[in-house]
Amino acid sequence: MNGSIMSDFPNGQVTLSAGPLAARFELNKTYILSLTNDNLLRNFYLEAGLWSYSGNGGTTSATTTSMDGPEHWHWGWESPTCELRGHMMGHWLSAAARIYAQTKDMQIKAKADYIVQELARCQEANGGEWLAAFPASYMNRLAKGKLVWAPHYTIHKLLMGLYEMYAIGQNEGALDLMRGLASWFYRWTGQFSREHMDDLLDSETGGMLEVWADLYGLTKDETHLELIHRYDRRRFFDALLTGQDVLTNKHANTQIPEILGAARAWEVTGEERFREVVEAFWTCAVTHRGYYCTGAGDDGELWIPQGHMAERMGVGQEHCVNYNMMRLAHVLLRWTGKPEYADYWERRFYNGVLAHQHGETGMITYFLGIGAGSLKKWGSHTQHFWCCHGTLVQANASYEQQIFMEDQEGVAVCQWLPSEVRLKLDGVLVHIHLQQDGQYGVYPLNGWNVTGMTAITKIDMPPIPGQRPDRFMYRLTIQCDQAAEFTMKLRVPRWVSSDPILYVNGVRVVDSVIVQSFIEIRKTWKDGDLIQIEFPKALTTELLPGSENLVAFMDGPIVLAGLIDREYRLVGNATLPETILTTDRERNHSWWNVGYYRTKGQNEGIRFIPLYEIKDETYTVYFPVKPKV
Predict the structure, then answer these.
(1) In angstroms, rounded to a whole number, what is the distance separating the alpha carbons of residues 446 and 441?
(2) Quick one: which of 180, 487, 538, 626 could link to 409 by a disulfide (CB 3.0–4.6 Å)?
(3) Cis ω before 20 (30° cut-off from 0)
(4) Taking the alpha carbons of 290, 295, 300, 302 in that order, is the dihedral positive or negative?
(5) 0.90 exceeded by pTM
(6) Cα separation, 99 vs 397, whole angstroms
(7) Which residue stretches of 144-285 are H helix?
(8) What is the pLDDT of residues 123-142, one digit of tens each?
(9) Pairing mode, if any, of strands 587-588 and 501-504?
(10) Which residues are registered as beta bridge partners of 389?
(11) How far is CA 513 from CA 107, 407, 497, 502, 517, in A?
C-alpha cells in the first residue's frame, strides 16, 4: 500500500444491491451501450486514413437513404472540426471497464475489446506509436507556442481509458497501445529544455503525469519513470509547497488532474515531495478556501477567492471538478484513514454526481448553479459531448469504489450505500451485505421497494412510523464459511445529529461515539452475524462562507433546493430551521420522500426538494434569513 492506511478492494469484489442507485447505474450502462462503435471510432479512423466520407458517390444514382450520413454522427466536442475530439473515447473505455468488472456483462466486454482492437489498427496505420483522434501536428503547434485546444488533456483521457481497460477490463492489448504512445511522447519531449517543457505544462496537460505513473507502476520501465519527471509541473507544485494561494481565479479542472498525477507518482516512486504537493493542494483548495453546501470551491471552472463565495454564485460548479475532487478525497482517505475525506466524498456524490445527472434520461448538466433562479441545462445523447459529459459517464460507473475499504485489521464501511463485498481473510471466505431499512427512508434516492410494499399490505406486521422517520437504519449481514476474527469499522457521518444506536446480534452496544469518526468492532465473526445501526438525522442550515445571512438547508447530507425563480427573504431563526420549514409530501405509497419540505409562516409558500431530484424546474439554494421581530 506504500504507506497507505486503507486499500481498495480489487475491482468487481464490491457490487451494488438492487434499488434506486443501481437503477441509475443501469441507466448509465444502457447509454454507454447505445453509442455505436463506428461513431466512437470515427475520428480515430479519419486520422489513421481508415475512413473517409464523400456523400452520394459523385455521379452515381445510388440512394442516400441507407447511408450513415452526418445526421447520425457524434457532434459537439466530438465533431471532426473540434480540436478536443477523441476525449469521449477515454471516458467510455474507463466506464466500460468498470461496468464489466462489476456486472461481468459480456456484451459490454465484447464491445470494449473490439474498440481496443480497432484502436490498435489505427495505431498501426499511424506508424506504430501515435494514437489520437487528431494529428500529431497539434502537439507540434503547441510546442511552437501556437494556440490549440488541450491536446494533452485529450490524450490523457485516452491513456486513462486504456490503462483501465488493461488493469480492470483484462484487455492485454490496451497496455501495448499505452507503450506505443509512451514511446512517441518520450521521443517528442526529449527535444525540449526544462524551461520549454515547463511552458508546455502550462497548457492544460490534464492527468498526463497520472497516466505515466500508472504505466510505470506496471512496467518499471526507466523511460516511463523519466516521463513522470518530465511531466512534473514544478512551477505549480513548488509554489504550493511554499504555501502560496496559486489557485484563486485559476482553471480548476487543469490543476486537479495534475494533483492526482502527483498522488499516483508518490505511490509508484515513493518520492515524498509528491505527497507533500497533494497535501498542500488540499489545504489550499479545501481547508483554507471553504466550500459551498455542495462541496464545491469553484464556479465556472475557476477557483473562488477565499471568503468571497457570495459574489461567485454564477453558472455554478463544474462536474469534471466535482468528480476529480471526489477522486482526490478517495486517495487521501486511503492514505490517512481519516473519515473527513469520506464525508467530503459523500457530499460531492449526492449533491454533485447525482445532481448533475438527469434521473430519467441519464444526461448531464455541465454546470450546477446554486444561485437564485438557477436552471439545469441538459446535454443531449450525441450533440454536445462536453468534457463533463464524458466525466459523468465515468463517474456513474464508479459508485462502488469507496463503499467498502480494507485495512490491516479488517473491513471499513466508508459509504452507506446498499451493496455487498466478497473477500478472503486469512483463507476464510467472507461475504458482507449492507442493506438499508426501507421503512426508514431509502437514500440517496427513493422509490418503490419490497420492504415498503410488504409493510403496507401485511396487517400483522409492526406498524410503520406515523411520520417521516428522523433517522436512517442499516443492517450489515456477515456470512463466512468458518469463524473469522477481524475488525469491522463503521463510519459515523458528519451529518449524524446525535449518538448512533448500535446492535450486534440484537444486543445493544453502548459506547461514546464521536461524529465524523469510525466505530470499531473487533470480534470473531460467525456465519449469520448481524450488525444494526441507526443514524439520527435532522434538518439543518449551513451559512454561506463569507456571508452574514445566506443559508442553505440540508436534510442530513442532502442539499435542498427551493422551487422559486428568484431570491426570496425568509423570516425565522436560521439556527432553528424547523421554524422556517416543515415536512411536505412526506409519504408516497410505499416509500418516504426524503428531503421534501415547504415553508411555514412566510408570506409566500415555497416547496423544497433534494437538489439531485431537480430536472427542469427553476430553483434557488441559498436564502437570506431575517430574524422574526
Answers:
(1) 7
(2) 487
(3) no
(4) positive
(5) yes
(6) 6
(7) 151-167, 172-189, 194-201, 208-219, 222-230, 234-241, 252-269, 272-282
(8) 999 999 999 999 999 999 99
(9) unpaired
(10) none
(11) 47, 21, 12, 10, 8
